[in-house]
Design brief:
The structure holds 2 protein chains of 2 kinds. Chain A is α+β, with helices and mostly antiparallel strands. Helices cover 32% and strands 24% of the residues of chain A. The model of chain A has no long low-confidence stretch (mean pLDDT 91). Chain B folds into 5 domains: 75 residues; 57 residues, Orthogonal Bundle (Arc Repressor Mutant, subunit A), CATH 1.10.10; 34 residues, no CATH class; 94 residues, SH3 type barrels (Roll), CATH 2.30.30; 86 residues, Alpha-Beta Plaits (2-Layer Sandwich), CATH 3.30.70. The chains are: A alpha+beta, B alpha+beta. The interface between A and B is large, with 128 and 140 residues.
Chain lengths: 301, 410
């Protein structure tokens, strides 16, 4: 169904090699490049050995193949069912495309079969024509590598103007929002698409000279494994770069790396675990936690 | 047997992937349920698939292997690679490319004609490979089931041709939905058709609050969706981690609940065995088999829909519980009002007076609200649960937190 060799890395590698071989013998460098791009860390070792031993009998030692046409494969039912399902997603219309060949296909799932139950309710308005037009302009700038002139309302309700060269389009499943991140002069700026009042393409491209993300901060916690805390904490923070070390049968030390602009969110998420975790580093985060906990103590005492 | 980076059975590797990705503190000796050889081979495979994301640490217990991924910066889900590691025979791969070369979208061929044509592909090789009729028939049958070959029966003959090929959607569309939709690995397989170039601006997409681990449950999900689509029941075998064993149930799957804050996925269903609505964690389900059509499916689904407005997370108990809390906010802290409104999943918010909000809800399981209420620590001015034991624990926990940080200087 899903776990099938026809979708596999080795079949994709063979197809790419044969795409060259139907025209001319591929060089060893070309074969190695295809394997590096498509395969796993050890594929070069295994696949080249298979080719050398002529195990598949699809290409001779001197790069000739009995295959006549450039290899391709139609979509499977499973792939078509998945494609049909995504066309029913309200976010699909943002991309302004039509998928052919799936008219009579049963979708793998429909919107009423799935529910992201804890996403925030003030997500982006995908049906709104103005929002959709802004989204498409941002996509166009990313595709054509041009810059954007943006008028927007800031988080504090102030009108702002920016000339932004977009680097990436970020989506948060929890917030259900798209943000465009890019460079404005020499700093990185992130703009929520729904905050844009007006946006237009600026013809001249601006050179991007630095990475989209700043250096990460670290937070270290001690965890006492009670009430399934270990499972909950590790799953909750699974999307961060992290390390977990077992100290004894019940205690663990966990280190998470996060971007500085997420500090308040991290603080709130740490609070949600109550006394099952204790932050031991950095001091700035501990101080902020303590401030809130002390205030809470006064409010309910 | 010599090591191979390809595997026959995905179920065997599923546990290791989760252990390495989510937990990552276990050493070789901790994997007691499998042999050390199995651990070594699986670890080497996962290292081969995910070499860029594997990390190691050395502790007194030994060497720990773990997958460390910041999903915000990695673009495409690295765990998809595991789905591209299915083993095959030399005959499988040869026959695949020969069949795809012989068949076209317009002309139908019989099995005999396909066999004759396949034989002509041997001429270049000193050692001939002969495909017998049953192997080719079986492979064609597999491909008909997969949908890449179309068959038509006429009299005693079956005719075969290739499925139609269409223009693929843009790479960024495939990438976006591969990352955010269930069974997204199917989109990744389509994106692979683009090769290393031509996938549009797919690499310019990134995902925040993105949990990648659920992809390893895609095959189970596919069966559940297929059953929901056809209004069928499903036989499942699931793990009970508390009792460290497995159990079986017959379920009527109704809805997939996905958490954007933990990555967990639950199938909300009616358990035929216990005759009640229940949520099963999808990552605990080891096996799922689609069963018969259920004539009363819509009725069960309607009942679930009515219950849903009182489910905060996924838990469904027999009785309803009441939860109330109040929070204060300052003159320039209107964002707290917005937070409460956008984060509440049911219940009501009322403004008691300027700077004071009250939240109230009737839910099946008030335990599920506790982590959320704690995020307002520093602002909670009143709290009342009808589940008094839970309220006591909440207050005790606040005291424990206060004590825990009291020796720390601010």
């Amino acid at each position: 169904m899903i776990f099938s060799e026809i979708y596999g890395a080795y079949y994709n590698i063979m197809a790419d090699i044969l795409k060259i071989a139907v025209k001319r013998p591929p060089s060893q460098d070309e074969i190695n490049d295809i394997i590096s791009a498509r395969g796993f860390a050890e594929t070069n070792l295994f696949f080249n050995a298979d080719l050398y031993e002529n195990r598949y009998k699809l290409m001779t030692g001197d790069g000739k193949t009995p295959i006549k046409n450039s290899p391709s494969m139609p979509l499977t039912f499973a792939q078509k069912r998945w494609l049909k399902a995504i066309t029913l997603d309200p976010r699909f219309t943002l991309f302004d495309i039509d998928i052919r060949g799936i008219d009579d296909i049963t979708p793998l799932f429909t919107p009423d079969m799935i529910d992201a139950f804890d996403k925030y309710s003030d997500g982006d308005p995908y049906e709104d024509e103005i929002y959709r037009a802004h989204f498409r302009t941002v996509l166009k700038a990313l595709r054509e590598e041009t810059s954007l002139k943006i008028s927007m309302i800031s988080g504090k309700g102030k009108l702002r103007q920016h000339i932004l060269t977009p680097v990436c389009l970020e989506y948060s499943e929890k917030d259900d929002k798209f943000r465009v991140t890019g460079q404005e002069e020499n700093h990185i700026l992130t703009v929520n698409i729904n905050r844009i009042l007006d946006v237009e393409i600026v013809p001249e491209a601006v050179y991007i000279g630095r990475a989209a993300y700043p250096d990460k901060h670290e937070v270290t916690l001690l965890l006492y494994d009670s009430r399934k805390a270990l499972d909950r904490v590790l799953l909750h923070f699974a999307h961060f770069e992290k390390e977990a070390v077992r100290l004894d049968q019940k205690h663990y030390r966990i280190t998470l790396k996060y971007f500085p602009d997420d500090e308040t969110e991290i603080l709130i998420r740490l609070l949600s675990f109550g006394p099952l975790i204790r932050v031991i580093e950095p001091q700035s985060l501990i101080s902020e936690l303590k401030k809130r906990i002390d205030r809470q103590h006064d409010l309910l005492s | 047997m010599a090591f191979s980076e390809l595997i026959k059975n995905f179920g065997n590797i599923r546990d290791y992937m989760r252990e390495f990705y989510v937990y990552g503190f276990k050493s070789r000796e901790d994997f007691t349920s499998k042999s050390l050889r199995s651990y070594d081979d699986s670890r080497r495979r996962i290292e081969s698939w995910l070499s860029d994301h594997m990390s190691f640490s050395f502790t007194p217990d030994g060497k720990n292997v773990f997958i460390s991924v910041d999903s915000r910066t990695c673009g495409s889900n690295p765990l998809f690679k595991a789905w591209k590691s299915k083993s095959f025979t030399d005959g499988d791969i040869a026959l695949h490319f020969i069949l795809m070369d012989i068949l076209n979208e317009d002309d139908e061929l019989t099995l005999k004609e396909i066999l004759e044509e396949a034989d002509t592909y041997n001429g270049m090789f000193s050692e001939e490979r002969v495909f017998d009729i049953s192997t080719v028939r079986k492979k064609l049958g597999e491909y008909v089931d997969l949908g890449i070959v179309i068959s038509r029966k006429e009299g005693r003959n079956t005719y075969y041709k290739r499925g139609k090929e269409y223009e693929l959607p843009a790479g960024e569309v495939l990438r976006f939905f591969s990352e955010v939709s269930p069974c997204g690995v199917l989109g990744s397989f389509i994106e692979d058709k683009y090769g290393s170039t031509g996938n549009g601006i797919a690499d310019k997409l990134s995902f925040k609050h993105h949990y990648i681990t659920s992809t390893i449950d895609s095959e189970i999900l596919y069966i559940l969706f297929d059953a929901m689509s056809d209004k069928c029941q499903v036989e499942i075998r699931s793990v009970n981690h508390k009792r460290k064993d497995t159990f079986e149930d017959t379920i009527i799957p109704l809805k997939l609940k996905m958490s954007t804050q933990s990555g967990r996925q639950y199938i909300m269903c009616f358990s035929v065995k216990t005759e009640r609505m229940i949520a099963y964690r999808v990552d605990y389900i080891e096996e799922a088999v689609k069963g018969n059509v259920i004539s009363y499916y819509d009725e069960v689904r309607r009942k679930f829909d009515l219950m849903e407005e009182h489910i905060w997370g996924v838990s469904i108990a027999n009785t309803m519980e009441h939860v109330m809390f109040e929070i204060c906010y300052g003159r320039y802290e209107e964002y707290i009002v917005d937070r409460l409104l956008r984060e509440k999943r049911c219940g009501t918010v009322t403004k008691v007076k300027e700077g004071l909000l009250r939240f109230e809800a009737d839910v099946y399981d008030s335990t599920e609200l506790v982590p959320w209420i704690r995020t307002f620590i520093g602002r909670i001015t009143a709290l009342e649960f009808s589940n008094k034991g839970l309220e006591r624990r909440f207050r005790d926990d606040l005291k424990r937190m206060y004590d825990m940080y009291s020796e720390v200087s601010s």
